[in-house]
Amino acid sequence: YTPTVAVVGRPNVGKSTLVNRILGRREAVVEDVPGVTRDRVAYDAAWAGRSFTLLDTGGWDPEAKGMAARITAQAEVGVAAADVVMFVVDSTVGATDTDEAVAKLLRRSGKPVILVANKVDGPSGEADAAALWNLALGEPYAVSALHGRGSGDLLDAVVAAL
Ligand code: GDP
Ligand code: MG
C-alpha cells in the first residue's frame, strides 16, 4: 500500500510549485495564470525512504461563479483520496474567507493536515507564516516552494504523519 498525500488550496498559492519542489523536477504545470492544473494529477514521490503518491489538485477557473464553493469541493475530493493533506496557504496574502472554509472542512475530516505557509522567501516572511496559527490546524510550516526554504522540515512532518 502506497499512501496518498493530497495538496489542496486556492489557485495561485503555489501548490504545483510545491509538488515540483518535492519531486525535485519540473513536472507539475506551474503558471502565472491561476487554475491551470487539471483536476487531479498523481505523481510518485519519496522522502526519507518513504514512498507516497502526491496528488496535485486544481483545475477550476478562478473567475468562474462560485469559485469558493469549487475550491472547497476540490479540497473535499482531495481529502477523500488522501491519507495526509497538505493545505497550502499564500502567507503573503494571509488566510482568506475561502482558506477559512477549507480549514473548517479539513478540521472536520479527521485526516492529518499539514499546514503549509508558502511564499516565505526570506526571514521577514516568518511573521506572516506565524499568523496562520489562527487557522487552528496546528503549526504552519513556513516554506518557499520556489526557492526550497523550509521544504526539508515540511517533508519530515509529512512523512511523520503517514
Ligand atoms: P497553484 O495554482 O496553487 O498550483 O500555484 P502555482 O504553483 O502555479 O504558482 C502560482 C504562482 O506563484 C507562480 O507564479 C509561482 O512561481 C508563484 N510561487 C509559487 N511558490 C512561490 C514561493 O514560494 N515564493 C514566491 N515568491 N512565489 C511562488
Ligand atoms: Mg497548480
TrEMBL record:
GTP 1 binds at residues 9-16, 56-60, 118-121. The keyword Repeat applies. GO terms for molecular function: GTP binding; ribosome binding. Belongs to the TRAFAC class TrmE-Era-EngA-EngB-Septin-like GTPase superfamily. EngA (Der) GTPase family. Residues 3-162 form the EngA-type G domain. The gene is der. GO terms for biological process: ribosome biogenesis. Keywords: GTP-binding, Nucleotide-binding, Repeat, Ribosome biogenesis. GTPase that plays an essential role in the late steps of ribosome biogenesis. This is GTPase Der. Associates with the 50S ribosomal subunit. It comes from the Bacteria.
